[in-house]
From TrEMBL:
Residues 26-53 are annotated as: Disordered. The lineage of its organism: Eukaryota, Viridiplantae, Streptophyta, Embryophyta, Tracheophyta. It comes from Aegilops tauschii subsp. strangulata (Goatgrass). This is Uncharacterized protein. PANTHER family: OS01G0127400 PROTEIN. It comes from the Eukaryota. It holds the Pfam family DUF3326.
Length: 293
């Protein structure tokens, strides 16, 4: 019969005891302390995972893409919208801002996404402001008096179309008492887009009239922007540059939200650009805007 070699753990047919409960310790060291048994949770004090759904806090996420800096995702016309939609699919609530959620004339609303202007989002992140979701806003429209008559009429027709076809409550519009005199440029130090509003007081007076006389609680602004330099616009349209208009658009909406604490969004009034076959898909939503005006 086969015979197996005797195990080194046996001596004369007797098995040596193995003590695996503690490691070998050098002489002079105290033995390790024994672990205390974990107390079982009391059945009347459930853990967070065991709490019923009514006691769970919804998971809220904030999605921010800086404006006018040439962000790889979100630096063009609505190219961050797919990211926002993906995030909204896994979060209970997503809070974001116009630079993420707007694609020029295109927009994809999601029921669990809050559209918050950038200045208000900053104050919310600081803990200074709270956000209250609403079913619908009464919208007032501000038009820059520097917009040419024909171009102004086009924008009013878009507002009429939004009221008639989408049922949006655009209740009143106001024209500024002076041209806003928008200027745009790139910051030579960092390359971001920025600019100035020459008559910001005129803008605030128009908003004040809509808020206090028409009772609006949200504002859309259309300001006449300088027509783009072909070199700047071509670079952006090809998906390579920075949006020259974005920096001043943020300045305009920040002014309104800081003063009146209501939602605000902005769209530029510009003349259509020449047709180009080399427009990047990320900038193509801007071409839809140009076709309408």
């Amino acid at each position: 019969p086969l015979q197996f070699p005797r195990s080194p753990l046996t001596r004369r047919g007797k098995t040596m005891a193995l003590h695996l409960a503690r490691p070998f310790l050098p002489a002079g060291l105290p033995p390790p302390a024994r672990r205390r048994a974990r107390a079982r949770a009391h059945p009347l004090s459930p853990t967070a995972d065991a709490r019923p759904p009514s006691f769970r806090r919804p998971y809220t996420s904030v999605l921010v893409v800086p404006t006018g800096v040439g962000a790889a995702v979100g630096g063009f016309a609505g190219d961050a919208l797919p990211v926002a939609r993906a995030l909204a699919a896994v979060a209970d609530c997503v809070i974001s801002h116009p630079n993420v959620l707007n694609a020029a004339m295109l927009y994809w609303p999601t029921p669990n996404t809050l559209y918050v202007e950038g200045y208000a989002l900053d104050r919310f992140a600081e803990g200074a402001w709270a956000l209250q979701p609403v079913h619908q806003n009464k919208v007032g429209l501000v038009l820059d008096s520097g917009i040419e008559e024909e171009l102004r009429l086009r924008h009013l027709q878009v507002a009429d179309a939004a009221r008639a076809s989408l049922g949006l409550p655009v209740v009143e519009y106001a024209v500024t008492d002076a041209p806003l005199e928008i200027k745009t440029w790139f910051d030579p130090k960092c390359g971001k887009s920025t600019g100035s509003v020459g008559n910001s007081d005129s803008l605030l007076r128009a908003v004040d009239a809509l808020v206090n006389q028409a009772g609006v609680n949200a504002v859309a602004v259309v300001a006449r922007f300088p027509d783009d330099d072909p070199e700047d616009s071509d670079c952006y349209r090809e998906g390579k540059g920075v949006d020259l208009l974005a920096g001043v658009e943020a300045i305009i909406s920040h002014l309104i939200v800081k003063e009146f604490k209501i939602p605000a969004a902005h769209a530029p009034a510009v003349l259509p650009l020449p047709l180009s076959p080399s427009v990047s898909p990320r900038s193509a939503a801007e071409e839809v805007f140009m076709l309408l005006f």
